Amino acid sequence: MMEERAYFQRLATHLASNLFATSGKNGLTEMNDAAPSTSTLASSPASRPGPATHTVPSGLQATRELSRRRWLMLGLNLATWFAMMWVAATILSAGGWSVLDYVLLACFAVGTPWTVVGFWNAVIGLWLLHFHKDPVGAVAPFAAAGDAATAITTKPRSS
Amino acid sequence: MTVRNEDPERAILRMKTIKASVDATGEGAAFSYFILSDTNDAGVAAAEERGVAEWKANDRDGDRITYRRRTVNTGFKAGNVREFCEQWGRDYELMLPLDADSVMSGAQIVKLVRMMQAHPKIGLIQSLVVGMPSSSAFARIFQFGMRHGMRSYTMGQAWWVGDCGPFWGHNAVVRIRPFVEECELPMLPGKPPLGGHVLSHDQVEATLMRRAGYEVRVLPFEGGSWEENPPTMLDFAQRDVRWCQGNMQYVKLLDIPGLKAMSRFQLVWAILMFLGLPAWTLMLATLPLSAHETQGIATFPKGLAIALYIAFFAMYLSPKIAGLIDAVMTKGGVASFGGPVRFAVSAVMELVFSFLQGAVSSFRTTVFMVGLAFGKSVVWGGQSRDAYGISWVTAAQNLWPQTLFGIVLCSLTYWVSPAAFWWSLPLTAGYLLAIPFAVVTAWPSLGQWMKRMGLAGIPEDFVTPAEVKAVLRTE
Question: Which residues pair with B164 in a beta bridge?
Fold first, then answer.
């Protein structure tokens, strides 16, 4: 249990410092400061040198654009989750806080995030499918290449 | 295709179908086919060998068809795929892992390969896998809901997940070199069930692929990519439990160095998916207590409690609601599900079904997670994927805990507060009805009847693509 708690603490730090650090400069440093030196699970691909870019590796999307979407998603979800927690706490606090009230609030806190994210995924997805002018371009910019009538050149190397 | 003690004839028929479909695109010469067996049943193994030998003999590209069987299944399915990579990976740039129940169209495979070819920094593209027409009532109703609900959900998710996407282990194109060099799974410290080999390998491989500088993408549109769903409640619960064990192992993987924060989030998310289940079960289990406590409070904000309950339900059901709206708004959407009457009846049926099924499997998984905390594991074997019945005895043997829990919970709640009993019934009915639910949804006659009526049909039920037709031919 102690071990697992340590993982979660480390994780919280990573999330706080790295979740949206996607600009070129931060993107490069991210790899190094995320590496706890004591881990034996897998080796880090060290400080992989690469050009500082403002896009994802394929060059198909700007990191700023993806970062903006993630901030929006985080904001919507946290706001929704806190609102629900606040209402739940208001209900549970009626007549004072018992042990059961705390247990229920904790369960509610763990049990709702999936529902909240599912809700926003569905809302955003529905908006993309029916109210966005180019849903494929926004979500799967790589997909257009599938329709180009190019021959497959990734043949077996031996042939 | 990885296989383990599944029906060889069915698996090989799927491979033959895929090959024929790929050959029909004119790009067939770029593809080779591997059946990677982890079968440990001697009879099944012999049938696999015979089947592939016959296929090779009758196909003019027999030299591009390979059968390989491991006698020891080190690392389970992930180990099977890795062994393939080590033996043949150098000869190919891309691979497309398939499960024994997977089917894909050649057109879709060629499209995915073109995408990978055009974008060398994409390491993996996951296709949106959908169910195939089924004659099991359980599978039909389940996949009807999945089918319309997953479009909006996956689209929305892909919008913000972007380059750190999901991998479901099959029906995806993978770039072999970075997969071999950078996605080797670590051995987890400690003893099973949580230590040892990584069981839910796919999402871990996806995060390692992204760490290596290659994007992981999902193509959020259905088309040309199929699988089968568990035919009964018991199979479903078993699969859920297996996924639970695999996802809970991620607790030990969260500190892999160098992961993108988004990838790390994906792992946390997979854990949270299952941590939520005992939380809900505990909330329900304490319902008689909380109902009792509430009665002593004169100022209890009843209206607010009802509002929160309804708001939560609306959000919980929102992917389904969005799916229904999407089908209605899409031209030909409702028609592809068999028209408005069938669609409406199926939607209502699926709604009820999802509550009952949710209660049964969340209780099962909760019990499993409690076991997990005490080091209890599950057996891994081939799944039964054909429609078959469940006897009342079998159902009772498997589902008496749900039933007992439901009876105790509901009678206590009713005794304390009839109102609380009625309000909670949508959530608790699944416990009470677990046994009849499992038996009835497994009735072959019910499934056959629904199939004839086109109830809970997916678009492939009404317009069946050639590949699906080919593999369902003998069933």
Answer: B216
